[in-house]
């Protein structure tokens, strides 16, 4: 028996508390599995960035608190990013394309480059995707209602996940 096990055995209050915590965790996990299995999953994509003040932060926390029963993943805030896309054809030089971003190549066997791509930095701004949240809901209409209560900066998009 380990030292921690001996201490828990000697302390009935700690043993009782550990048991209750284990029961609560098991119940929460079962409820989350049931919630996710019965309802559809939706990703909410948050658009627009401006430096938040205390009122905005409080509004977001209030929204997260209000949707706690629907939340599967509270998500995260996005920071910097890049977009990588296909360069358009018909550039100035053969095999090169003019793009707004930096060109990057895709190597093939033998070191021959083809399928030039473009890379564009994505700074945070009013048109940026700034975060996501994954919720469960009975329908797209319900997910839309949940999203509409969000204190979004510019917009919020709702996508059903399959």
Short description:
The chain is of the alpha+beta class and 162 residues long. The chain has helices at residues 3-10, 12-38, 54-66, 140-148; strands at 40-47, 71-77, 81-86, 102-107, 113-122, 129-137, 155-161. The strands form two sheets. Strands 2-6-1-7 form a four-stranded antiparallel β-sheet. Strands 3-5-4 form a three-stranded antiparallel β-sheet, with no helix packed on it.
Question: Could you explain the architecture of this structure?
Answer:
By secondary structure, this protein is an alpha+beta fold. The protein folds into three domains: 38 residues; 82 residues, 2-Layer Sandwich (Alpha-Beta Plaits); 38 residues, no CATH class. The chain contains four helices and seven strands. The strands form two sheets. Strands 2-6-1-7 form a four-stranded antiparallel beta sheet. A hairpin with a 5-residue loop joins β4 and β5. About 10% of the residues have low confidence.
Summarize the helices and strands and which ones pair or pack:
Blueprint: H1 3-10, H2 12-38, E1 40-47, H3 54-66, E2 71-77, E3 81-86, E4 102-107, E5 113-122, E6 129-137, H4 140-148, E7 155-161
Antiparallel strand pairs: 1-6, 1-7, 2-6, 3-5, 4-5
Low-confidence stretches: 90-99, 107-112
> What portion of the residues fall into strands of 2 or more residues?
25-35%
Overall shape:
extended
What's the gyration radius in Å?
A: 24 Å
Discrete helix count: 4
Based on the structure given, which CATH architecture of the largest domain is correct? 2-Layer Sandwich
CATH class of the largest domain: Alpha Beta
- Would you report the number of β strands? 7
**Sheet with the most strands: spatial strand order:** 2-6-1-7
Oligomeric description of these chains = single chain
Helix content: 25-40%
Distance between the termini: 47 Å
Domains, number = 3
């Amino acid at each position: 028996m380990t030292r921690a096990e001996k201490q828990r055995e000697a302390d009935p209050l700690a043993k009782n508390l550990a048991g209750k915590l284990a029961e609560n965790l098991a119940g929460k996990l079962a409820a989350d599995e049931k919630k996710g299995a019965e309802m559809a999953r939706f990703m909410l994509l948050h658009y627009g960035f401006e430096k938040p003040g205390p009122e905005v932060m409080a509004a977001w926390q209030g929204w997260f608190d209000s949707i706690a029963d629907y939340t599967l993943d509270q998500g995260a805030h996005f920071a910097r990013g890049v977009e990588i896309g296909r360069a358009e054809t018909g550039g100035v030089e053969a095999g090169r394309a003019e793009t707004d971003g930096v060109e990057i190549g895709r190597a093939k066997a033998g070191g021959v480059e083809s399928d030039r791509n473009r890379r564009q930095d994505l700074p945070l701004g009013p048109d940026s995707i700034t975060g996501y949240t994954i919720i469960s809901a009975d329908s797209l209409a319900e997910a839309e209602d949940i999203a509409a209560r969000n204190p979004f900066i510019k917009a919020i998009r709702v996508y059903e996940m399959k």
